[in-house]
Amino acid sequence: MLKGNRNKTKKKTNNVTPFIPEGDFYYTKGVEAFKKRKFDIAIKWIQKAIEDKPYFPLYKCQLSIIYTETGAYHKANQLLTEVLRTGEYVDCYYLAANNYAHLGLLQDAKKYAQMYLDKKPEGDFSDDAAQLLDYIEIGDEDEDDIFSLEDEDELIILQETAFYHIENDDWEKAIPFIEEIMEIFPEQKLAVHDYAQALFYTGKKEEAMHIEEDLLEDYPNNLQSHLNLALFYYETGDSNYLEHIQIIDNIYPIHEEQKLRIAEVFAKTENYSLAYERYQNVSWEQAKRRASYYKWYSVTAYHSGYPSKALRLWEEGLRRHPKLSKEEGPWAFKD
Questions:
Q1: Residue ranges of domains in the chain, CATH in brackets
Q2: What is the pLDDT of residue 23?
Q3: Alpha-carbon distance 218 to 101, whole Å?
Q4: CA quadruple 127, 132, 134, 138: dihedral sign
Q5: Which of 144, 147, 178, 146 is nearest to 161 (CA)?
Q6: Would you say 132 and 97 are in contact if contact means Cβ atoms under 8 Å apart?
Q7: Which of 9 and 113 is assigned the larger pLDDT?
Q8: Distance of CA 200 to CAs 65, 195, 205, 207, 242, Å?
Q9: CA 240 vs CA 207, 245, 275: distances in Å
Q10: Do 299 and 333 form a contact (C-beta atoms < 8 A)?
Q11: Terminus of the chain with fewer CB atoms < 10 Å: N or C?
Q12: In terms of Cα–Cα distance, which of 20, 25, 26 is closest to 42?
């Protein structure tokens, strides 16, 4: 009798239809994991959903959002581009604009934000897109007409004088010129960040940090604020600098000044492997006028295992900028 029961049970089991999850099940599990900020698990579930329904745009958009949250902006935009190739899922335009802004590709960010507003002016992301456009200040060719030639000459003189003092770490002398730029040319937003640095390095550290923290509240994607706060926190022993380093590590700007500044911040915070990669992508023609370029690139090379390259950089820096002779060389910096 027992044997017969076993056979019946076996027969019954064999007739059970196996449970095969579909894309919606995977997607739901992925969203649940995402809400709990378990990003690795969320990515695995959403990828399974995409495998099940590879042409369903919602799944790829959700995966792009997870990538954005983890700072993988290039991966996020690759997915959004795939979605836009197969159809017009309008939200992709804003999501892509946001990623481009994080990467420092402001022209692309502006283009995609405007495309979103053109196609969906009352959409869920319309306010965010409008704010992003307000933040992005790209100099059009027409802006050359804003100032008279005399104004342009005055701005150039002030900027070059401030630059000279900053390059020589003479922050006290730089301050009045930076203040004058801020007063006469308020549209020169970068001057505010130079001013924050000047305050920090002349002892007004809390005031400097407050300036950048306030700016970051209004403009969370502000690269210069992330750069300054990474340095300020690092130099005051605050571990919050690591959060800003992580954000900066996912930004690849097109402007040489921004590329150089990122490399230098990585070097100054002892993230030498990150700094070395970025220095290799900096234009020498743009950077050679800076003594700081030779100083921090040589330090980076030395601590990245390239002592010969460090020496070559240092010697070239000495030839171009004799003031470097007052410093001890890249080997003097701690690892």
A1: 23-135 (1.25.40.10), 145-243 (1.25.40.10), 252-335 (1.25.40.10)
A2: 63
A3: 15
A4: negative
A5: 178
A6: yes
A7: 113
A8: 36, 9, 4, 8, 19
A9: 17, 9, 19
A10: yes
A11: N
A12: 26
Residue 244 CB-density burial (10 A; 0-12 exposed, 13-18 middle, 19+ buried): buried
| Tokens (6 digits) for 157 | 């003189």
Instruction: In whole angstroms, give the CA distance from residue 285 to residue 256.
Output: 10
Mark 68-81 as b/e (b = at least 16 C-beta within 10 Å): bebbbbebbbebbe
Instruction: Quickly list H helices, the chain.
Output: 2-14, 23-35, 39-52, 57-69, 73-86, 91-103, 106-119, 126-135, 149-167, 171-184, 190-200, 205-218, 223-235, 241-248, 256-268, 272-279, 284-287, 291-303, 307-320
The yes-or-no verdict on residue 253 having pLDDT over 70 is yes
Q: Is the pLDDT of residue 286 over 80?
A: no
Encoded tokens for 65: 């959002």
pLDDT in tens, 139-176: 443 344 444 555 667 877 888 889 888 988 899 999 99
What is the amino acid identity at position 314?
W
> How many CB atoms sit inside 10 A of residue 35's CB?
9
**Neighbouring residues of 261: CB distance < 8 A, sequence distance ≥ 6:** 224, 227
How many Cα atoms within 13 Å fall on the side-chain side of residue 138?
Answer: 16
What whole-number distance in Å separates Cα of residue 119 and Cα of residue 94?
11
- Paired tokens of 145: 């007409």
